TrEMBL record, chain A:
NCBIfam families: 3a0107s01c2
Keyword annotations from UniProtKB, A to Z: ATP-binding, Nucleotide-binding, Transport
Organism placement in taxonomy: Bacteria, Bacillati, Bacillota, Bacilli, Bacillales
Name of the protein in its database record: Phosphate ABC transporter ATP-binding protein (PhoT family)
PROSITE patterns on file: ABC_TRANSPORTER_1 (PS00211), ABC_TRANSPORTER_2 (PS50893)
GO CC terms: membrane
Example GO molecular function: phosphate transmembrane transporter activity
Domain named ABC transporter: residues: 37-278
Pfam families assigned: ABC_tran
Domain of life: Bacteria
TrEMBL record, chain B:
Job description of the protein: Part of the binding-protein-dependent transport system for phosphate; probably responsible for the translocation of the substrate across the membrane.
Classification lineage: Bacteria, Bacillati, Bacillota, Bacilli, Bacillales
Domain ABC transmembrane type-1 stretches: 84-296
Name this protein carries in UniProt: Phosphate transport system permease protein
GO molecular function, one term: phosphate transmembrane transporter activity
Source species, domain of life: Bacteria
Keyword Ribonucleoprotein: no
Membrane-crossing segments per the record: 27-48, 78-103, 124-145, 157-176, 208-229, 274-295
Major site of localization recorded for this protein: membrane
Bilayer disposition of the protein: Multi-pass membrane protein
Subcellular location: Cell membrane; Membrane
PANTHER family noted in UniProt: PHOSPHATE TRANSPORT SYSTEM PERMEASE, PHOSPHATE TRANSPORT SYSTEM PERMEASE PROTEIN
Cellular component per GO, a single term: plasma membrane
Family label: Belongs to the binding-protein-dependent transport system permease family. CysTW subfamily.
Organism: Salinicoccus kekensis
TrEMBL record, chain C:
GO cellular component: plasma membrane
Naturally occurring in which organism (per UniProt): Salinicoccus kekensis
Phylogenetic classification of the source organism: Bacteria, Bacillati, Bacillota, Bacilli, Bacillales
Protein name from the UniProt record: Phosphate transport system permease protein PstA
Entry membrane topology: Multi-pass membrane protein
Superkingdom per UniProt: Bacteria
Keywords: Cell membrane, Ion transport, Membrane, Nickel, Nickel transport, Transmembrane, Transmembrane helix, Transport
The keyword Membrane appears for this protein: yes
Gene3D superfamilies: MetI-like
Length: 283, 307, 292
């Protein structure tokens, strides 16, 4: 740990340089990859606490992008900034750009409601509403003004199928979602996020509250879902990042140490700290 | 250095006196605690015994079926419905006014307001809740009634609207702060779930927060209605002293509490039917507010821990 | 497969946002109703009171003549009233709160006592007045004295102080309690030397708020028959007395318009006392809160 702290103070700027270096290399490697999110020198403060510093990242369509890092490194804050959920904390201040499909999400033309309709979210703890399973999944389409029973029925079924939980709940759609297990609840929440057919799905440590079997199910699900969606997932579980993601960004103390294809991050990272972290030497 | 032994000194200091104190304190405290039970027994005994005395003189059937309350004169009639209707009119107006406003304020404080605004508004609500009801009565008769009369000249000096509105103002802080408590205790993860899929604050409030907090909100409303039923000074000052069971809200009426105040501030000869009728009316009032309080407590208890 | 009509969603969005914004303002207005009423009430009363609020008003007894009528008897009477209510209420309520929090076994009797106290809190004040009238004034033959009214009000505010004292006692952390018991102190030593002193600020705050409720309470005094036309202050607990809210009520009920101004002046004095008491309560709460 002491090592890391020293390394940090010494190589902070070189770390950013490596990142920029990588980003350019990345652009070449991934010429056919279409970006959904790009951030330009994004900074975020909680009051006086500079929680995110000069974040420059891109996330691509139809990929699973993992964000890893030790607790308190800003990874959850960052993913919540992508759909502006972070603004629910009143003392937050931001600087720099986040581009979603080349539109600045902080631009007044884009309302948070519109952004969040396109960029859905699955939370750390399963948070179903105290309503029936059906009403949970139909919630999004309904608030957005879709009322036709037939459409809603189809959307609910498709979302539950896509979230790989249809078979478990199809006979009890009118039961309260609270009666389900934690793993099932989390898949209901994924189905709920899918129901509005978003473009991007943000997942904030979606398996941290789940047992191993449910975790495997959710991981398999991410793999399936990337055919139709772009997924950005925060995880503190490195095996999970290695298993499910295409690219991985390593956050440390509020800035990005390294962002690259997952196989590079886990196979041949450029930064010593990344190597130390992915090999389990700290964090 | 020293020959003192603390442990020995402590042993020496231990006396029987200490043990007696330890044993007697809980008993003494329990005896004082039972004064609260005595108060309840006192209330029940007073109301029941004096009401029984009243019903030995006047017809119980008339009391609970008649809507004619004319307690004076040679042949008085005690029909409680005239007073109950008076109370109901005032309470209905108060509720219709206070529930939307109180809930609106609760929603604003819990769902929209920043921490700073909340810190300013909540003490104001506390101050409003602490204003003596006689002051509200003055406000009703000297401000609200004249304003209403200038808009709507048919309203008489004593009426149900003015009294009802001001009773409503009195219970707004109660509804607002208890409902806000109920809404604030809905976990944030639920709001996030809704906001995170593009729902507005309004949709999140009405579809997620309010349904989850509904038991606390209803309990607060029931409690506030109970408070409105028992409210005395505002109605004594602004509602008049004309018992009637009509639905007219523009003219003078009398509530149960208003009757008690009217009779006790004059001199009802001790031992007369009029005197004992106070307790029959008090009993009715007690039963109504007690029932509301029990309902409120039952709702809170029954539907707690939903998440 | 696209089931969701994205165009429909986009089309409906602006309406939803407008509604959200409009309702936000309506909710804000609801919140402001309280403030508006408070300001109106105080300004309106002050304007009525302004010509009548002077030293004579504070030093004269009540009178049927407007020019010479004052609030002196009522102010002194209310002080006498509190002289009975405050010690009795504090003694009964704090002991009850200590018993319930520190000594009461978990059983049906305790549950019953707790339910009883919360129901007592919901009994209308005018019913407490009937209790006072039948028990203290008549059965115990105290008449409409300071003692009868003071005891009635003490019973009325008892549940309020019990509940707030219970909260204050509960907020003393169990670590402090364990530290005391852990070095061999007895239960009562711990309660009297550690818990009670630590809970005192919270208890006092609750007491002040309850007293400010008692001081403005009118209905029980009317029922007990507190007079409004005395020309003396009481000399003892069994004497008749006047009280501020009672005097205000009597003036409001007078047919001549001038008495309304006197009532307004009385209200300003009463509100000033209440605001002072509340400020002290808030000061104590802020000064001593977050000690742990």
């Amino acid at each position: 740990m002491v090592n890391i702290m020293e390394a940090n103070t010494i190589t902070k700027n070189p770390g950013t340089a490596v990142l920029e270096d990588r980003a350019q290399a990345g652009t070449q490697e991934t010429a056919e990859r279409i970006p959904v999110f790009k951030t330009n020198n994004f900074n975020l403060w909680y009051g006086d606490n500079h929680a995110l510093q000069d974040i420059n990242l891109r996330f691509n369509q139809n990929e699973v992008s993992a964000i890893i890092g030790p607790s308190g490194c800003g990874k959850s804050t960052f993913v919540k900034a992508l759909n502006r959920m972070v603004e629910l904390v009143p003392i937050v201040r931001t600087e720099g750009e986040i581009l979603y499909r080349d539109q600045d999400i902080f631009n007044r033309k884009m309302t948070v409601e519109e952004l969040r309709t396109k960029v859905g979210m699955v939370f750390q703890k399963p948070n179903p509403f105290p309503k029936s399973i059906y009403d949970n999944v139909a919630y999004g389409p309904r608030v957005h003004g879709i009322r036709k029973k037939k459409v809603l029925d189809e959307v609910v079924e498709k979302s539950l199928r896509d979230a790989a939980i249809w078979d478990e709940v199809k006979d009890r759609l009118n039961e309260n979602a609270y009666g389900l297990s934690g793993g099932q609840q989390q898949r209901i929440c994924i189905a709920r996020a899918l129901a509005t057919e978003p473009d991007v799905i943000l997942m904030d440590e979606p398996t941290s509250a789940l047992d191993p079997i449910s975790t495997t199910k959710v991981e398999d699900l991410m793999h399936e879902l990337k055919k139709n969606y772009s997924i950005i997932v925060v995880t503190h579980n490195m095996q999970q990042a290695a298993r499910v993601s295409d690219t991985t960004a390593f956050f440390y103390q509020g800035y990005v140490v390294e962002h690259d294809d997952t196989k590079v991050i886990f196979g041949n990272p450029r930064d010593q700290r990344t190597e130390d972290y992915v090999s389990g030497r700290f964090g | 250095m020293s020959n003192y032994n603390i442990q020995e000194m402590i042993q020496k200091n231990k006396s029987n006196k200490g043990a007696v104190v330890e044993k007697s304190i809980p008993v003494i405290l329990f005896l004082i605690t039972s004064v609260s039970i005595l108060a309840t027994i006192g209330i029940l005994y007073t109301l029941i015994s004096q009401s029984l005395e009243f019903f030995s003189r006047e017809s119980f059937m008339t009391f609970i079926t008649s809507a004619n309350w004319s307690p004076y004169g040679a042949e008085p009639e005690f029909g409680i419905w005239a007073l109950v209707m008076g109370t109901m009119k005032v309470v209905a107006i108060a509720t219709v006014f206070a529930v939307p406003v109180g809930l609106g304020a609760a929603i604003y404080l819990s769902e929209y307001a920043t921490e700073r605004v909340r810190k300013i508004i909540k003490p104001i609500l506390e101050v409003l809740a602490g204003i003596p009801t006689v002051v509200y009565g003055f406000f009703a008769i000297n401000f609200v009634t004249p304003v209403l009369q200038s808009i709507w000249p048919e309203i008489s000096l004593y009426n149900a609207i003015s009294a009802g509105l001001v009773v409503g103002i009195m219970i707004i802080p109660m509804i607002a702060s208890l409902s806000e408590d109920a809404m604030s205790s809905v976990p944030n993860s639920m709001r996030e779930g809704s906001l995170g899929m593009g729902a507005t604050r309004l949709e999140t409030t009405f579809k997620i927060v309010l349904p989850a907090a509904v038991s606390g909100i209803i309990a607060s409303i029931v409690l506030a209605v109970s408070r409105a039923i028992g409210e005395t000074m505002i109605v004594s000052i602004a509602a008049g002293s004309t018992p009637n069971a009509s639905l007219d809200i523009t003219s003078s009426l009398q509530t149960m509490t208003g009757f008690i105040v009217q009779i006790t501030s004059g001199d009802a000869a001790y031992g007369s039917s009029l005197y004992f009728s106070l307790f029959a009316v008090g009993m009715t009032l007690f039963v109504m507010t007690f029932t509301m309080n029990i309902i409120s407590q039952w709702i809170t208890k029954r539907y707690r821990e939903e998440y | 497969m696209q089931l969701i009509d994205k165009n429909l969603i986009a089309k409906k969005r602006s309406g939803r946002l407008t509604l959200n914004n409009a309702m936000k303002w309506i909710f804000f207005l609801c919140t402001m109703v309280g403030l508006i009423v408070l300001v109106t009430l105080i300004v309106d009363t002050l304007m009525d009171a302004v010509g009548y609020l002077n030293m004579d008003f504070l030093t004269n007894f009540s009178s049927s003549r407007v020019e010479s009528a004052g609030f002196y008897g009522a102010i002194i009477g209310s002080l006498w009233l509190m002289l009975v209510t405050v010690p009795v209420a504090i003694f009964l309520s704090v002991a009850t709160a200590l018993y319930l929090e520190e000594y009461a076994p978990k059983n049906k009797v305790t549950d019953f006592i707790k339910i009883n106290i919360s129901n007592l809190a919901g009994v209308p004040s005018v019913v407490f007045g009937l209790l006072g009238l039948a028990i203290f004034v008549r059965a115990m033959a105290m008449g409409n004295s300071v003692l009868a009214a003071g005891l009635t009000l003490a019973l009325m505010i008892l549940p309020v102080i019990v509940v707030s004292s219970q909260e204050a006692i509960r907020s003393v952390p169990s670590t402090v309690r364990e530290a005391s018991i852990g070095m061999g102190a007895t239960k009562w030593q711990t309660v009297s030397r550690i818990i009670l002193p630590a809970a005192i600020p919270g208890i006092i705050t609750g007491i002040i708020l309850a007293i400010s409720r008692a001081i403005g309470e009118t209905a029980p005094l009317v029922v007990i028959g507190v007079p409004t036309t005395l020309l003396v202050t009481p000399d003892g607990l069994l004497d008749s007395f006047q009280a501020m809210p009672m005097q205000i009520y009597a003036w409001i009920k007078m047919p001549q318009e001038e008495f309304q101004y006197l009532a307004a002046a009385g209200i300003i004095v009463l509100l000033a006392i209440l605001i002072l008491m509340n400020s002290v309560a808030i000061f104590i709460r802020n000064k001593f809160s977050r000690r742990y």
